[in-house]
């Protein structure tokens, strides 16, 4: 293009924005289910800290009361 600032392709801009929005939504829903440290699924919930834990995180909550997330998730959502 001979112009310094060529016009934006609006279809491409809209497609990119939609992709980024979906990616952000997908990431936010996954972040609730997957441990950011160990990339394992949150299968446990620490009642003292009121936070989810994966199997590897469980070792740091060994003296805490821990329950499966399926039992505690409805109460703490």
Question: Can you offer a commentary on this structure?
Answer:
Residues 30-69 form the B box-type domain. Keywords: Metal-binding, Zinc, Zinc-finger. This is B box-type domain-containing protein. InterPro entries: Znf_B-box (IPR000315). It holds the Pfam family zf-B_box. This protein has a 3-stranded antiparallel sheet. 39% of the residues lie in helices and 12% in strands. The model has no long low-confidence stretch (mean pLDDT 77). Strand 1 (44-46) and strand 2 form a beta hairpin. It has helices spanning 10-31, 69-76; strands at 44-46, 51-53, 66-68. It has 2 helices and 3 strands; from the N terminus they run αβββα. With 77 residues, it is α+β, with helices and mostly antiparallel strands.
């Amino acid at each position: 293009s001979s112009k310094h600032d060529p016009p934006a392709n609006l279809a491409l801009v809209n497609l990119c924005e939609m992709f980024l929005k979906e990616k952000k939504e997908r990431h936010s829903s996954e972040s609730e289910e997957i441990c950011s440290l160990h990339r394992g699924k949150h299968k446990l919930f620490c009642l003292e800290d009121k936070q989810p834990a994966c199997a590897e995180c469980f070792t740091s909550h060994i003296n805490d009361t821990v329950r499966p997330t399926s039992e505690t998730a409805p109460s703490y959502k």
